[in-house]
């Protein structure tokens, strides 16, 4: 049977779908060296992971012996993050290396109210930042980051390269196909834009089929993302008090090519 719903990554199914969408072993192996070298160079001991989702980055940081707080507004994400953190290997590595990990409910602009500062680093990965409410929401989020970071503290942002998407008029992202014990799942992302180019409208479409090769089940969800091209991020980080900002095209530390790179990694240092 085939059906179309608005569930997708939303509601109770969101966290489960997100962990199915991402190959976490490959992703963390690719991204870990940049974070680890940066954290060691900047003497990072305390980290807040904003928009932590199912907690995979926060868990990795805690296994390095860091004191980590994961923050997310979605109860289903936080519930799955706590399950992931309690898994045997992760929990034992955190204990073995002297790290700590807590998860808190909260959104952009709410870190200071949680009392999490001062911290050495803030991370915001997985395309979470574009969920801010417009440019005013971005300013609020960055000001809040600055409020809880120590002087000289570092912020790491990772999001899609909106400048490329907007210049090219791209209508979709490459599909992701995952063969799992529960069956085959295909993830599609179709892109529209608001007339004033202030936001990118992502339709997340998930197709699943059981191992017996039955008919596809289709789910979809629309998510508006505030358009955050690199020049805007640079300007707003400067206004928030970040005295040095670097843009990379991938986690090797290669400089950003705005015409070609799918993602943007932004590293900023607070004055």
What is Rg?
Answer: 18 Å
Low-confidence stretches: 1-13
Strand-residue proportion: 25-35%
Q: How many DSSP H or I helices?
A: 9
Mean pLDDT figure: 91
Percent helix, as a range, is 25-40%
Keywords:
alpha/beta; Rossmann fold; 271 residues; 7-stranded mixed β-sheet; disordered N terminus; 12 strands; single chain
In short:
This protein has 271 residues and is of the alpha/beta class.
Describe the structure.
It is a single chain. By secondary structure, the protein is α/β, with parallel strands linked by helices. The chain has 2 domains: 4-8 and 164-226; 12-161 and 229-270, Vaccinia Virus protein VP39 (Rossmann fold, 3-Layer(aba) Sandwich), CATH 3.40.50. The chain has helices at 14-21, 24-41, 56-63, 75-86, 88-96, 111-114, 134-148, 162-168, 230-239, and strands spanning 4-5, 46-50, 67-72, 100-105, 119-124, 149-160, 172-180, 183-193, 199-209, 217-226, 242-248, 263-270. The strands form 2 sheets. The chain has a 7-stranded mixed β-sheet, with helices on both faces. A 5-stranded mixed β-sheet has the order 1-10-9-8-7, with no helix packed on it.
Q: What topology emerges from the helices and strands here?
A:
Blueprint: E1 4-5, H1 14-21, H2 24-41, E2 46-50, H3 56-63, E3 67-72, H4 75-86, H5 88-96, E4 100-105, H6 111-114, E5 119-124, H7 134-148, E6 149-160, H8 162-168, E7 172-180, E8 183-193, E9 199-209, E10 217-226, H9 230-239, E11 242-248, E12 263-270
Helix pairs in contact: 2-3, 3-5
């Amino acid at each position: 049977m085939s059906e179309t719903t608005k569930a997708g990554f939303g509601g109770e199914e969101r966290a489960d779908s997100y962990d199915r969408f991402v190959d976490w072993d490959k992703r963390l192996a690719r991204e870990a060296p940049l974070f680890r070298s940066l954290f060691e160079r900047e003497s990072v001991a305390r980290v807040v992971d904003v928009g932590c989702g199912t907690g995979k980055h926060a868990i990795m940081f805690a296994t390095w012996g860091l004191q980590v707080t994961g923050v997310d507004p979605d109860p289903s994400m936080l519930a799955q993050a706590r399950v992931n953190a309690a898994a045997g290997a992760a929990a034992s590595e955190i204990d073995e290396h002297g790290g700590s990990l807590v998860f808190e409910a909260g959104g952009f602009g709410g870190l200071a109210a949680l009392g999490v500062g001062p911290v050495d680093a803030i991370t915001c990965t997985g395309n979470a930042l574009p969920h801010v409410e417009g440019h005013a929401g971005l300013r609020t989020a960055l000001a809040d980051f600055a409020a809880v970071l120590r002087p000289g503290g570092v912020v790491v942002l990772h999001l899609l390269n909106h400048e490329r998407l907007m210049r090219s008029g791209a209508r979709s992202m490459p599909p992701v196909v995952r063969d799992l014990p529960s069956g085959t799942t295909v993830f599609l992302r179709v892109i529209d834009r608001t007339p004033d180019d202030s936001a990118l409208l992502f339709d997340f479409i998930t197709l699943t089929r059981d191992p017996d090769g039955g008919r596809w089940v289709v789910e979809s969800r629309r998510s508006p993302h505030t358009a955050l091209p690199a020049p805007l991020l640079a300007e707003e980080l400067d206004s928030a008090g970040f005295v040095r900002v670097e843009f990379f095209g991938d986690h090797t530390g290669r400089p950003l090519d705005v015409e070609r790179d799918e993602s943007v990694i932004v590293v900023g240092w607070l004055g």
